[in-house]
Design goal:
CATH architecture of the largest domain: 3-Layer(aba) Sandwich
Helix content: 40-55%
Radius of gyration: 24 Å
Order of helices and strands: HHHEEHEHHEHEEHEEEEHEHEEH
Strand content: 15-25%
Largest sheet: 11 strands, mixed
Number of domains: 3
CATH topology of the largest domain: D-Maltodextrin-Binding Protein, domain 2
Number of strands: 13
Structural class: alpha/beta
Distance between the termini: 52 Å
CATH class of the largest domain: Alpha Beta
Number of helices: 11
Length: 299
């Protein structure tokens, strides 16, 4: 294989093998045979003079060289697709957008934005995965990563979309039962990734209250903390967008109207590179507009 087209085809095959973790699954996706996929992988290894993957009877595991190539291959294929789109007479967006979104926002506000985008662009499909933990972007194979809080990878391009207001809330019954207790002695329900055992609140003037707590309940899942809060087990720091209806209906009450937890950034992370498929860029723009309208502008 000597042509530039063949090189791109080899990279496409390699990326599919990496994503599926199986030669047979990659062959099925690409409509070819497993021996053909094996020959293409071997040809790429020969061309680069490195071992890219370890094969077993059941799966394929990338070597360190394979992981490094995977990141480069995805970037090159994305840039090539952007070039094709730029010189095509067909302006319609099409193809798959692979997104990793936070669990809570990904089941509500973000998925509404994604749904509207697919309605506006019928030839676009979305692979929508929900995760709150940190990811290895290149290994996941996503086009964009929507993340609450800091993105722990300085190689990525990060766009801050919004900052989420967070407040201390509890049920009327819970707050009445603990009305005589100081704030630090209330039964706290904490989100491990953000509060843990340390609560930090500030007023509008910037004065802070910082104290340690022994949580009545700690979890890494916002839905678990929310349900326990609704049951009156204790107070919790929750984002306003998540509990807006409960506040309006009086189901939950703002326990400390003069105090707020630090606003959390909502970030969008992309692989480095200046050329991306138009569908990815347009989707990112749509998410940014949605965040501005639903969560407020980034501050």
């Amino acid at each position: 294989m000597n042509t530039r087209f063949d090189r791109l085809a080899l990279l496409e095959t390699f990326v599919r093998i990496a994503e599926r973790g199986s030669l047979s699954e990659a062959a099925r996706d690409l409509g070819t045979s497993q021996p053909s996929i094996s020959r293409q992988l071997a040809a790429l290894e020969t061309r680069l003079d490195v071992v890219l993957a370890r094969r077993t009877t059941h799966d394929v595991t990338l070597t360190p060289d394979g992981l490094a190539l995977l990141e480069d291959a995805r970037r090159m294929l994305g840039e090539w697709e952007a070039i094709e789109e730029r010189h095509s007479e067909d302006d319609a967006l099409k193809g798959v957008i692979r997104v990793i979104a936070p669990v809570a926002l990904g089941q509500s506000l973000f998925v509404r934005a994604a749904s509207q985008f697919m309605k506006d662009h019928p030839s676009v499909t979305i692979d929508w995965r929900l995760r709150d933990d940190a990811i290895r972007f290149a290994e996941e194979g996503c086009d964009c990563w929507l993340k609450i809080g800091a993105v722990p990878d300085d190689t990525l391009v990060v766009r801050e979309l919004a900052r989420v207001e967070r407040l201390v809330v509890g049920t009327p019954e819970c707050l009445a039962a603990h009305a005589t207790q100081p704030l630090k002695d209330l039964p706290w329900l904490t989100l491990g990734p953000f509060e843990g055992n340390r609560i930090e609140l500030s007023n509008s003037g910037g004065s802070a209250q910082v104290f340690s707590v022994t949580p009545k309940m700690a979890s890494d899942n916002i839905f678990a903390i929310y349900e326990a809060c609704l049951e009156g087990v204790g107070v919790a720091i929750l984002p306003r967008w998540f509990i807006a209806d409960d506040l309006v209906q009086g189901i939950l009450i703002d326990a400390e109207p003069d105090l707020r937890a630090a606003r959390l950034p909502v970030n969008l992370a992309l692989a480095p590179g200046t050329k991306r498929p138009a569908r990815v860029e347009r989707f990112c723009e749509a998410i940014q507009v949605w965040c501005r309208d639903q969560l407020g502008s980034s501050a």
